[in-house]
Input
Amino acid sequence: MILLLNVGLGILFICLGFLVVKNPELIAGYNTLPKDQKERFNISGYALLMKRSFMLVGLLIIFLGVVSKVYWPDAFLLTSLVPILALVLYLNLVANRFK
Output
């Protein structure tokens, strides 16, 4: 059951990665930017960064879910939350170069 949750969460992140590239309006705060800031913002580069990050985290959640099923069955929170927190920290550090 826990493995299915990890796989489902991983697939959700992979799907979000594809959706962000096709619909950059899904990126939080982009729709609320004034028109002149939208024109200066490198949305294609930022969407590509988000796609790669979401896909990596999705694959990492699936991989860690399978590994934890074998070696550490009670580690669902660890295998699903740590990659998500790492993604948030990484995007906060790297996103400033797209302003």
Summary: Residues 2-98 form one domain.
